[in-house]
Amino acid sequence: MVQLKNSLVVCAIVFGTAMGLQANMALVGHAKVVAPCPTTGTFATLEQGGSCTIGNQTFGAFTFSGTVDMGSGSVPLAPSDLNYSTITPTINKEIGFSFSGPFSGNSPSGGAQVTLGYLVTGPDITFAGVAITGFSSSGAHNTSGDGIVMETICPGGPDVDHCRSPLSLNVDLGGSGPVFGATGADAVTFSPVDELAVFKTVTLIAPPVNGPGFSSMNGFNEISQFPEPSTMLVFGSGLLLLGIIVYRKQLHVRRPDRHSLIDRCGVLVRHMA
Question: What's the predicted TM-score (pTM) here?
Fold first, then answer.
């Protein structure tokens, strides 16, 4: 009876390890289908590429629209006007994009507005954050304009228009006196999901005064949590180690028979049947 129990443990460990390793290899093989995102480029690069990866997350379904007004009338922006660089995993395990572009405008009616969206897919996404970098604004009569990011995310995707539980992130800088080089951020956490739809509107407003005034913004960042390494491989490796320990202990208490481990598993299955 003891030998039967030990054999059951070893067989379960071997097959569990094999299944874990096979599942992990399937995940790795799937991830290799999509190319990594170029480290720098324009939003047009992302749109034309269709989808790309940073770390273990895939970004796709990119959409863009925008306008800019330097003070003499609004003109449309093209996806190629918005630059980006990738944010790669570091100690804080965050990945995403850092965007920059023609975010500047002069009083009284200058400014810019960009609306963009994309879909993030990957295992166990639980965090999203947005930040404005380098916002400056100053106008006559001790006034300032605004730098605003209004973002809606949909944990579980695939788009925010049909999202059952949308979450909002907002960053608003300026509006009360001159501002130089300000930064601001907002973030949210949620239960683990494999898809995250992101939709944001970035607005830059010059001081609404009749007189000298300007607003500018270096750009904005979008990050999401970098998923932990696949637990299937770790789990499978642990089972394999446990199986080796159990099997070696068995060798010390009895002579090994002539059957291989797999043969004994087959015999055991037939015995149980």
Answer: 0.69
